[in-house]
From TrEMBL:
One matching Pfam family: Abhydrolase_1
Source superkingdom: Bacteria
Name of the protein this chain belongs to: Haloalkane dehalogenase
A GO term for molecular function: catalytic activity
Organism of this sequence: Mycobacterium heidelbergense
Gene3D superfamilies hit by this protein: alpha/beta hydrolase
Amino acid sequence: MQTVRTPDDRFDDVPDFPYAPRYCEIPDGEGGALRVAWVQDGPEGADPVLMLHGEPSWSYLYRKMIPILVAAGHRVVCPDLVGFGRSDKPTRREDHSYARHVEWMRALAFDVLDLRNVTLVGQDWGGLIGLRLAAEHPERFARLVVANTGLPNGEQPMAEVWWRFREAITTAPKLDIGWFVQGGCRQQLSDEVRAGYDAPFPADEYCAGPRAMPGLVPTTPDDPAAAANKAAWAKLSVSPTPMLVAFSDSDPITGPMAAIFAREMRGAQGIDHPTIRGAGHFLQEDAGEELANRIVEFLRR
């Protein structure tokens, strides 16, 4: 598997993200290795809050939330998905598959970090990957937080805006990642923050991950990931693991999933699920402090 690695100096001017990256190597699935990056903060002995980002962002997305959770006494772990952030980037779209991304995060979280009593925070692809891990390794998870995400199995129609996003990001001659993140926010991002989202992708050869991910979402029942997602949903729907459903009020892509999670997940019953007001798809940008405080309340209960 051919990969590229974003030069470190691309991250020198990223604002409001003082966390030193940590690195490990995991198998790439083809006999080689991938360097995967993560940041973490908080007491080493505390139960971990594993916060997984989505497409086309990186762990920078959680910068407003990390300090709040740490101040409440939690250990926060924020990986960069393979192909994103400071993690290695396979250069071919076909190197990316749903199953590989689940396995790559499993290897980091369990083989390398040996995380236990995990609270998952998953948004966008962070939920698509994290919920698979929670279903397939329930003994590792104590709580689940789903925020503007889903677990599609190809039987549900995707929103028209998502199809437009998929077409745009897979066919654009040049990707402006900061522009795509801005498109999922209600608030106006500063030029510096948009540059922070651009930082991992200095040229198009680094962009196979962002270009590939929309095509990995199951949109038909015969998709390679559809059966595994359907099985994961069946397991999660009867799981007693507490689940907080914390969606924003202005996400045209995943918004309808909030009511479905709250209704169909056993672990979501009896919990006061917040709606994060005035926030778009990337609610961590628009209302990260509020989302973090809601998670702190959930963990306290």
